[in-house]
Amino acid sequence: MRILTLALLGCGLCWGQAADECKPSSLNIPGAPYPCVYPDRRVAFRVAAPDAQKVQVRLGGTHDMTRGPDGLWTVAIPPQVVGFHYYSIVVDGAVVADPATRTFFGSGWDNSGIEIPEPDTDAAYYSAKDVPHGQVGQRWYYSKVTGKWRRCYVYTPPDYDANPRTRYPVLYLLHGWGENEQGWHTQGHVDFIMDNLIAEKKARPMLVVMDNLNAVKPDEDASLYAARGIIARRSMADVAPAPGGRGAAPAGGRGGFPTNWGGVFTETMLTDLIPMIERTYRAAPGRENRAMAGLSMGGMQSFLTVLSNLDKFAYLGGFSGSSGGRGGFDPKTANNGVFANAGAFNQKVKVLFLGIGSVEGPGTKNFSEELTKAGIKNVYFESPGTAHEWLTWRRCLNDFAPRLFK
Amino acid sequence: MRILTLALLGCGLCWGQAADECKPSSLNIPGAPYPCVYPDRRVAFRVAAPDAQKVQVRLGGTHDMTRGPDGLWTVAIPPQVVGFHYYSIVVDGAVVADPATRTFFGSGWDNSGIEIPEPDTDAAYYSAKDVPHGQVGQRWYYSKVTGKWRRCYVYTPPDYDANPRTRYPVLYLLHGWGENEQGWHTQGHVDFIMDNLIAEKKARPMLVVMDNLNAVKPDEDASLYAARGIIARRSMADVAPAPGGRGAAPAGGRGGFPTNWGGVFTETMLTDLIPMIERTYRAAPGRENRAMAGLSMGGMQSFLTVLSNLDKFAYLGGFSGSSGGRGGFDPKTANNGVFANAGAFNQKVKVLFLGIGSVEGPGTKNFSEELTKAGIKNVYFESPGTAHEWLTWRRCLNDFAPRLFK
Q1: How far is A168 from A1, CA to CA, in rounded Å?
Q2: Which residue has the higher pLDDT, A107 or B226?
């Protein structure tokens, strides 16, 4: 197989040798044969750019494509790890989405996406099965904190309508940096994961609320939005400063968040979101019926929010994101001393969950061990063989949700 | 103003003269200052393509952009008509979405979109207001007819959860050619339109079900899908035939639909969709509680389905799409003679609605007049100043929905 792989890489796509084995990605637009994935997880791309000088694919590095006589550019890139990956193409320096796939909001724009499939058996928990299905509803609400209409998505479990007197606990679940409130139901398959867990009686029926962690007050510079959630993409025009002042460059950029980072979202959540949810849905009240979790930056946000509001939440999860893992953790002072009294903390926080992909580094494991040393009960979950992407987070949710509200 | 316009067109964007007046489109990604719309509805675009030879915008024609010394290409194009428009950019022959906007599924792929705003007062009916809000839910269901899981969206009115014993009538509402089940709630703002109509007591609270009109049986050639709903985009690679047989070219292409066009969707709807909706939601049963409408190709589909199944539907709407308008209408034979007995037809079909944008031509008006001549009661609705796009269809829905279930 290695010989075959090298031979293929050496000659572009080598039509006819193995093209039939290359299966279109499940995220392609209907009818699009490319990108496709070979059994060994190499990926073949094809882009029509008849007059271009240079066309590249950006997925796990930048790969030059080869022009065919028909103006179609092709390349087969080395095997990719399983899971969901954003990617883009570069046409003579313009970074754009591949028009052959549906797009997915990440890194602040609508990228292309590709799913490198797991074996069907491994993917079953986030696939549609013949079980009762809940639904994900798009819900608009007005925020007094931001002075704007906001959109969230709410998963209601399969039995929600059939039990008009039942109240359900709520998991508030956040996306990551540069993503938005659509991530968990498009990239994450939250509905299939919950449907399957509930059908197997592994998780309690619950509501899952997915909001946008970007929140800016009316009197704040709008560029903070970009600094909080959207990178300044220097290679692209869309967030570059415009002559005349619109869209001025973010003050911080990635890694340079404003000092009040996270605070406005927490305020929006407590003031607007949670009351709207508990008014609109049959949500069970009280801290023991509220959980919060998020991925990456959304995990950081969850730690910030929950650890400052233990009167309102009893469950906390960070998927590839928390408040620790960078060393220097002092349980006496971290997060305003919330960990200082381990016994009190353990009584309040029913589940403290730390998830990570195995190839993301040891930070989260170290943090978990430091917490354990300080007497803080926590669950460490490691997704084997996955990176900082949605397959890690689907697996985290699949492990986390069954631990809630029990 | 005309002099100013010409002066601006003559020098590209002419920064500093009027840049402040150019308002970012509401469909841009967060923080993106371009594309923006001037008060006179000219539109300015900016694309980063440092190494390209030629960059163009395709919106109401193809417009060459001008390269600045910074590798940013710009252009201001002549005033556009109000409403929602798909558009794309062309970078050295590659037709792609502008990375500065959210994308919208139309013409079979995720295009860029721009909203040329109406005056706020005209847009109020499809805008978020401080009224009770329903929600749009994403619902998966298995189709025995197609042998696949399918996704639809269901609008439930604001009072749905508060009235657990109430059953609601249902409007089945279809997208157009090359679009999908997401069109009505992303491009169409169906939720705000219905929320506002219901709040003003102009429309009865109802469910609105939005499915995908593309349906292929398991034993059919998958390329029929492309022929039915997705154009063969000759300038792009994604639906071109692949060596080895995958994604073979559609048999028909646009205008060349297979002879059984529409039949599989009707069968899917009657066999799988309607029973699922009436099992899952509190839908009122019977023909007088069912309406069907659609835009463009979805209007054609609605006419095909309803006129062959008058025992199941009592309301029918075509928005820029119906079964007539091309001349040669013979009420004795058209649609298998369903119009032959006008009295019987009028008793069965409570509302027959024909909507169109005023600049789309006289076909629909002619059809309405032919129907009237044949004694068939119908409503003709003309949207002033709009074309074959979503603003026409939002207005059609806003006029059609209040006529239903009364």
Answers
A1: 52
A2: A107
Cis check for the bond before A157: say yes or no (omega within 30 of 0).
no
Cα–Cα dist A66/A72, whole Å? 8
**Which ipTM score applies to this complex?**
0.88
pLDDT at A251 exceeding the cut of 60: no
Q: Nearest CB to A138: which of B47, B93, B185?
A: B185
Sort out which chain B residues have CB atoms less than 8 A from A131's CB and list them: none
* Contact indicator for A65, A74 with CB cutoff of 8 Å: yes
What residues of chain B lie within 8 A of the CB of A237, using their CB? 34, 46-48, 72, 100
Confidence of residue A260 (pLDDT cuts 50, 70, 90): low
CA distance B355 to A268: 42
Q: Where are the beta strands (DSSP E) in A197-272?
A: 207-210
pLDDT at residue B232 is higher than 80: no
Q: What is the mean pLDDT of residues B299-320?
A: 97
Asked if B321 contacts B285 with a C-beta cutoff of 8 angstroms, the reply is: no
Please answer whether residues B7 and B21 qualify as being in contact, where contact means their C-beta atoms are separated by less than 8 angstroms.
no
> Which of A33, A189, A34, A38 minimizes the C-alpha distance to B151?
A189
Residue range B276-296: average pLDDT? 97
Residue A313: band (very low, low, confident or very high) from pLDDT cuts 50, 70, 90: very high
- Reading phi first (left if > 0) and then psi (alpha if -120 to 50, else beta), residue A385 is in left
The pLDDT value recorded for residue B221 is: 61
Tell whether omega for the bond before A35 is within 30 degrees of 0, i.e. cis.
Answer: yes
Burial zone of B117 (CB within 10 Å; 0-12 exposed, 13-18 middle, 19+ buried): middle
pLDDT value for B326: 65
Task: Judge contact between B282 and B168, C-beta under 8 A.
Answer: yes
Sequence-ordered list of residues with C-beta below 8 angstroms from that of B396, at least 6 positions apart, any chain: B293, B295, B317, B319, B320, B353, B355, B381, B383
Residue contacts between A and B (CB atoms, under 8 Å)? 262
Q: Could you report the per-residue pLDDT of A135-146, keeping only the tens digit for each?
A: 999 999 999 999
pLDDT digits (tens, 9 = 90+) for B173-186: 999 999 999 999 99
pLDDT of the residue at A234:
32
Question: Mean pLDDT, to the nearest integer, of B372-398?
Answer: 96
| CA gap B395, B386 in Å, rounded | 10
SS3 A209: strand
Euclidean distance between CA atoms B21 and B37, whole angstroms = 8
- The model's pTM is 0.89
Closest approach of A315 to chain B, Cα-based (Å):
27
Cross-chain Cβ contact B72/A240 below 8 Å: yes
Query: Taking a C-beta distance cutoff of 8 angstroms, is the pair B169, B221 a contact?
Result: no
CB contact under 8 A, B51 and A54: yes
What φ, ψ does residue A309 adopt, rounded to 5°?
-140, 55
CA distances from B396 to B192, B304, B320, B366 (A): 14, 19, 9, 18
* A314-324 pLDDT per residue, tens: 999 999 998 77
CA torsion, points B43, A253, A360, B99, in degrees to nearest 10? 10
User: CB of A92 within 8 A of CB of A28?
Assistant: no
Q: Which residue, among A116, A146, A298, has the nearest Cα to A210 in the 3D structure?
A: A298
Band the pLDDT of B223: cuts 50, 70, 90: low
**Residue A80 CB partners (closer than 8 Å, separation 6+):** A37, A41, A42, A43, A59, A60, A114, A116
